[in-house]
Each structure stands twice: as C-alpha cells, then as structure tokens.
Amino acid sequence: MWNIPIVPPAIFNERIAKCKSCKFFKKETGSCGTLITGQTVSHYRNKIRLCGCVMKWKAKYRFSSCPIGQWSAFGVSNKDIHDIRQFIVPLSKKESLSPEDQKQLWSYFDKITGTINPRTTCPPCVKSVITDILKEVNRLQMVDEGVVSQPNETK
User: Fold this and answer.
1) What's the pLDDT tens digit per position in 108-135?
2) Are 81 and 137 a contacting pair, CB within 8 Å?
3) Is-contact 5 114, C-beta < 8 A?
4) How many CB atoms within 10 Å of residue 127?
5) pTM exceeds 0.70, yes or no
C-alpha cells in the first residue's frame, strides 16, 4: 500500500562502501553480522545489536540506518526524529485525530518515507501508520544515541 523509496545511487554506493569496510560486515553473505539473526557486539564500549540484513538491500532504502551509526536514514535529521517523536507518542494514545493531527501525521510519514503517500482516514490504516512511524523513530533514536539497536525489520 505504501511507497517505499530508495536513495539516489550515489548515496547507495557510499553506504555500501562503508559497509564493506566495516569489521562487522560478513563478506560471504553480504550481511551486517550473522545473516538474518544478527548478533550483539561491543562497539566503543556500547553493546550494539547488528541487524543481520543483506546490505545490498538494506542500504538502498531511504529510512534504513546502520546499527553502529556509519550512515543514517536519508533526509531525516536528528531534529526531525525528535520533533516526530514528540508529536507521535501522545498521538498514539488518542482515540481519534483532529484534521490538524491527521495533516501533520501524513506530513511526517511523507518525511520518513521520502515520498507522498496516499491519504486515508480509515482508522486501522491511520493506526498502522502511527505504529510504523513510532517504531521507526524509536529505532532511529536508539541508533543515534548509541544504545542497543533493534534489528531492522527490512531484510
């Protein structure tokens, strides 16, 4: 249902180059850590959960980021992550959304995905978008803070 945008070729190539030079990159499988399952490693005294993703796939998606912070989501700044999180957490607890809330929700969703997504007022669809945004900003914030990252669900 949603458009999943990819990064420009130059960004993809830059990301892949960083992955291939990383000590956690598994050349045999092309993955970040152990394929599919990932693994927990120590990185600058932080415990980091590698994602286990095949990097030629993960590196092309705009919203993806490196578990150890070598590259981040394309077009989403730390301030954006903070602003979106401040908006989305209280919104996730509301029973219904005002037209202003819906407009802002779709604006943030477009920002994260890097595309203009179809609008809907269908309650289960809106709830799904809120849940997806919340998961992604939490993951991006954890990566940014150097906290143990969750495995990326984009394999």
Assistant:
1) 888 776 667 788 888 888 888 888 888 7
2) yes
3) yes
4) 12
5) no
Query: Which amino acid, 128?
Result: S
**Other C-beta atoms within 10 Å of 66: how many?**
24
**Which residues have CB under 8 Å from 26's CB, separation 6+?**
32, 33, 34, 35
Instruction: Tell me the C-alpha distance between 145 and 135, whole Å.
Output: 15
Q: Is the predicted pLDDT of residue 150 greater than 50, yes or no?
A: no
Which among 96, 78, 55 is positioned nearest to 146, based on CA atoms?
78
CA triplet 142, 144, 147: central angle to 5 degrees?
40
Q: What is the DSSP string of 37-61?
A: T-EEEEETTEEEEE---BHHHHTTB
Work out the end-to-end distance of the chain between its first and last CA atoms, rounded to an integer number of angstroms: 18
